Amino acid sequence: MDIVGAELTTAGSRSAPGYWTRPEALVEAYRRGDPLRAIAHDYDGSVLDICEALIDKTLPDNELERLRSVRQRGQTTMGSIWDNVEMITRLDDSGIKRSEIPVVLRAIGTEIDVEVAVELLHVPGIPGDDPTILQDPILLCDKLSLLYVTGKHHGIEPDYQLTLGQMPTAEIAELRLLTRADFPPRRFAEILAVAETTKLAIRARVARSLSVEEYVATAEPLARRFRGHILDEAAAWPTPVSALTRRLGGGCWDQALSKVGLQLRKAADRFGETDFIQAIQDYGVECADCDFPVSLETYDRWVTAEVSLGGDRPSAIELMVHYGGWQEALSTIPGYEAKQQLPAPNSDSIDAALLDRTDSALEAAWVRVGEYVCELLASMPRNRSLLIHYGDCVDGSIPPFAEGIRGVDGVWCEVVSERLLPGEQWPIDTDYLEDEDWLAPDDEVPQWCKEKVALHEAGHQLLKGLRFGRLCPDPWQLRWGTKQPIGGPGRDHGVTMEQALAGEVQTLRNAG
């Protein structure tokens, strides 16, 4: 579509975003393991928008398919990263952004999944050593534990004669080394017989699967019964599920099941309640240690890295479904509320709730401002600029601002940098701006900038830069106009687009 056509489309109608108009394609992108950041970009929404749409539109089976896709793509990409670690290090040292390194590698002929590589290279410690070097060895006692617990859960009757004739002596010796000499002989024989008979039941497809919670519910009472008979007083047997998953499955429950011939029944079977708690708390620690923003986007990136390195964590959508929402999940992180207090001028605090995406009325206000700004940009002549101010000047300082300049190929977007508005005067999240591909300020362009932004997207990009890059939480404090400087709050109501083009100031209260 040409520029004029794009202008007419933007000014004349506001179509529904892609995540509502193309639900089948959205689900397919999720199933094939695309990062949520990339899906949000492709389908005209925020990451929260995408997650909420997927919760409404996807089936539980899609989570299992996504897990397999992320694992396959992530591990392949990790292989490419390790194969090119020297080149990546040189590019990083030369000042090329990590989000651009995969593009450079692809351009010089390297086979690499660019979108997944962008996610992985934003994670501390990547590239690093091959994690397979540090994997725990698989122990016979762990396989025996999983077989025995599976048999007990499924009610498998032990066949002692079968066990005597077929069980490998190594497994018998393993259990003997694990237990004290006073371990009851009948119990010893029963464990071996149930485990060996379960192998037959698995081959006959009588026993096909076992969830984490089923394992825990069966194993923990048995471990209490065997306490005092295990040689290592600090250990428990049957093996605790966390140790079993780590050693037998390399961090993945479905991989542990496959070691004895079982299969995962559904995605939800691979996690218990403690796994959700551990995931969100480990993620919170990672964000605190690395000074990352706590967001759905960074959580999805963290999960991608964990899965790529051989582990498994609940996806962002699984976490939201389990806790009832993203903020509900974050509320379980110790001290999260305290960490959300953000500095602002004159020691006044910014309400962190205004920065999240859970208040539908607030979100609608931001979208409405974005539409007003997009419409105004689409109607402006080329080489003319639109300025957006947040709040008022305090003690002679400038307020946070963004600027859009209409060009031939789209809109040049700028957000005020710390050079003009230092972080001690107004907070800034440079990580967010870098992650969203804003170009860092330099001597030639002193503000954060983006070029050639599409007309239908430019207004929203400018607002996101202010909202999440310069931490401006309240859309009702925004003023925008086509003349500089922007003076005063403008009229109370009735400022039309034509009047705004003529230079009158618009706000949420008066635009119409």
Shape: elongated
Please state roughly what percent of the residues sit in beta strands, choosing from under 5%, 5-15%, 15-25%, 25-35%, 35-45% or over 45%. 5-15%
Largest beta sheet, briefly?
Answer: 5 strands, antiparallel
Share of helical residues:
40-55%
Radius of gyration: 28 Å
Detail the poorly predicted runs.
1-14, 338-354
Sheet with most strands: strand arrangement: 4-3-2-1-5
Give the count of helical stretches.
25
Distance between the termini: 28 Å
Order of helices and strands: HHHHHHHHHHHHHHHHHHHHHHEEEHEHEH
Mean pLDDT value: 83
Question: Can you characterise this structure?
Answer:
- The protein has 512 residues and is mainly alpha-helical.
- 52% of the residues lie in helices and 6% in strands.
- The chain has helices spanning 3-12, 18-21, 23-31, 36-42, 47-57, 60-83, 85-93, 101-107, 114-121, 140-154, 160-166, 169-178, 185-203, 212-226, 241-249, 253-258, 273-290, 296-308, 316-323, 326-330, 336-339, 360-379, 430-435, 455-469, 497-501, and strands spanning 385-390, 401-407, 410-415, 448-453, 478-481.
- Strands 4-3-2-1-5 form a five-stranded antiparallel beta sheet, covered by helices on one side.
- Residues 1-14 and 338-354 have low confidence and may be disordered.
